[in-house]
Amino acid sequence: MSLTDAQWAKIEPLLPDRAPKRGGRWRDHRQVIDAIAFKYRTGTPWTELPDHFGSWKGAHNRLRKWAADGTWEKVFTGLLARADAEGDLDWVVAVDSTIVRAHQHAAGKKGPGWRAGRSCPRTVPRRAEYQDPSCLGQPLPPARLHPHAQPGR
After folding, report:
1. C-alpha distances in angstroms, 96 versus 42, 93, 99, 101?
2. What would you measure as the largest C-alpha separation in the chain, in angstroms?
3. How crowded is residue 46: how many other Cβ atoms within 10 Å of its Cβ?
4. pTM for the structure as a whole
5. Residues 56-100: pLDDT tens digits?
6. How far is CA 140 from the centre of its chain?
7. I want to staple 35 with a disulfide (CB 3.0 to 4.6 A). Which of 53, 81, 120, 143 is the partner?
8. Torsion, Cα of 120, 124, 129, 133 (10° steps)
9. What is the sign, positive or negative, of the torsion defined by CA atoms of 82, 86, 90, 91?
10. Which 8-state DSSP code applies to residue 22?
């Protein structure tokens, strides 16, 4: 499914000139945008783009360059502003918690002095003032001092 003529007419004025600052002319922007849309719509790897889209490297490089120089942002904001001015937008914002996930390493602290499944450290002082009832009888770790502080001064 490629861009329709009406869609292309809205996008084309927002794209940069086809003659880059260095080198030869870029191939047709419409073909490249169709290749990028195909790749993300189907989930196919870049190297397996159909031949009628041209070189996959050209499409990938253009995607990266336009992301770096702000072309995609310009296209998106231009299309959004035009649709909003024409009354084609109905603003509804929704967040589904099933798509907002924490990174795997955000699950809990692991490292020296910690065991899986426990919330209290293994090696801590046994003095009564360090006991924490929330740790099921496990003492709290000692207070950390500034690295250059000297105790007793």
Report:
1. 23, 10, 6, 10
2. 80
3. 13
4. 0.55
5. 998 999 999 999 989 999 999 999 999 888 888 877 777 766 655
6. 38
7. 53
8. 20
9. positive
10. S
